[in-house]
Automatic annotation (TrEMBL):
Source organism of the structure: Telluria aromaticivorans
Entry keywords, A to Z: Signal
Designated name of the protein: DUF1800 domain-containing protein
InterPro entries: DUF1800
Organism lineage: Bacteria, Pseudomonadati, Pseudomonadota, Betaproteobacteria, Burkholderiales
Residues annotated as signal peptide: 1-28
Length: 362
């Protein structure tokens, strides 16, 4: 096994070994090097955040794979933000981005995106982002590590799918598509192996995925960097690499929409100009990802009270009309703290790493 070039250790910590000069080649029964850890983080998730490479190396291949197949709970701050299901298209897009960036359940998010695409569920096909978000939340995520039959049934029976036909023609198609999602050109032997596990376990996805992620085809040196990032993967992996704590993804949804890749739509790669503009603004702290919390003050309304009435009955009382909410401008200290939260520690190093050819691949 090879270690990554030492000069990379002086770049942005989150992007150590991002240059794919170092290719993975670990077996499933041995400790892994930095390059293999990077490969796992790129394929089972949306790339490394600061500290992830060291953590995955310490865990080893099987332990890390199993940790993603039986993932930890969401952090409390993400749970708090997701407590109320997104009821609008904008809210659903922001929820998906927050999960992809901040959730430790990285494989769950990758699989959720895969199955939505496999079943042909995307914006522009009669479904809005809010409807797709509900399908993802209620029918896909709960079943990505269970049986394929339960997953397909839950999606087909979801109220948002009424009158719509699922894509994906057969279980063999599903196995082949799953293999191709994680291995660029899956050899026939790998597909046969996965199909055998699929049949033997009753299409248990955990067993199939464990076989896939510990296979020689997945761990081959030539596999690292053989795929090119689409717009969503590029944006999400860049934000994860920056180390910026994200609580607001509105700006990221706008970036993707302007690049012709709405969050729940068909994904295409960003062009060079779009990547350069986004990375420059991200590195300079001009992409709002963590806004200061303004202080709200209520002002008594000058409007007359509204009468609460029941049809056909006399007025039962009066309800005061709420006054407008005035948002006080953040103090200079709060604004400075917000700017710091939106700016990475090493702006120049981050920009250089994210605009390199290696970062476009995973």
């Amino acid at each position: 096994m090879r270690s990554c070039p030492s000069f990379l250790r002086f770049a942005v910590p989150a992007l150590l070994a991002v240059a794919l000069l170092c290719a993975p080649g670990a077996r499933a029964d041995e400790a892994i090097d930095e390059a293999t850890a990077l490969h796992l983080l790129n394929r089972l998730g949306y790339g490394p955040a600061p500290g992830d490479l060291a953590r995955v190396r310490a865990m080893g291949l099987r332990v890390y794979v199993d940790s993603q197949l039986a993932p930890p709970a969401l952090p409390a701050y993400i749970e708090a933000q997701l407590r109320q299901p997104a009821a609008t298209d904008a809210g659903a897009r922001e929820e998906r981005l927050l999960r992809a960036i901040a959730s430790p359940r990285q494989l769950e998010e990758v699989l959720c995106a895969f199955w939505l695409a496999h079943f042909g569920i995307m914006e522009g096909k009669g479904l809005g982002a809010a409807g797709i978000g509900a399908i993802a939340r209620e029918a896909v995520r709960p079943h990505v590590f269970g049986s394929y039959a339960a997953l397909r049934s839950a999606v087909a029976r979801h109220p948002g799918m009424q009158g719509r036909r699922l894509g994906g023609r057969s279980e063999h198609d599903a196995v082949r598509a799953l293999a191709a999602h994680f291995v660029s050109a899956p050899p026939a032997a790998l597909v046969r192996s996965l199909a055998g596990v699929w049949r033997q376990t009753g299409a248990d996805q955990r067993a199939v995925l464990r076989t896939l992620f510990t296979s020689p085809a997945f761990l081959a040196q030539a596999e690292a960097g053989s795929k090119r990032k689409d717009a969503l993967r590029f944006v999400v992996s860049a934000v994860r690499a920056s180390g910026i704590a994200v609580t607001d993804t509105v700006a990221l949804a706008e970036v993707l929409a302007q690049a012709g890749s709405p969050v729940y739509g068909r994904m295409v790669p960003m062009d060079s100009r779009e990547r350069t503009d986004f990375v420059t603004r991200l590195a300079e702290g001009r992409v709002l990802l963590a806004a200061p919390a303004p202080r709200a003050h209520e002002q008594a309304s000058m409007a007359p009270p509204l009468r609460a009435t029941v049809e056909g009955a006399a007025p039962q009382g009066e309800v005061a009309q709420p006054g407008p909410v005035l948002m006080e401008a953040p103090t200079p200290a709060a604004a400075a703290m917000a700017a710091a939260r939106n700016r990475p520690a090493d702006a120049d190093g981050l920009k250089e790493a994210l605009l390199g050819e290696a970062f476009l691949r995973y």
